[in-house]
Amino acid sequence: MPAPDIAESEWSIMEALWESAPQTASEVTKTLRPTTNWAENTVRTLLTRLVDKGALKTGENASGTRTFLPALKREACVRAEGESFMQRMFGGAAKPLLVHFAQHSKLTAEEVRELKKILDQNLNS
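RESULT FIELD:
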């Protein structure tokens, strides 16, 4: 199953649940409140959307309260988002994407070595 299209606000919910799951809506709200200041109703709306998209599963804790947990691995969602971004911004071509980030990012020497190693491995596979 391909990863669903996850909106920017929904990524905050997913990140909180990838970090620690399962959580109730109240727990997710408490986790995100310092950075988002969202009301619990806002969090519940986003949780419902993510369940409808198939990104989250639900369960119940010991007291019978509904809990939420990711139905997808973070890596699958990041990969799908990266492919979508590359398609929208660079027509699906990897080279212009890589050139853009190489020219406009402040990479450390270690990061450059790591990227070079990955590219070299790609050549040999």
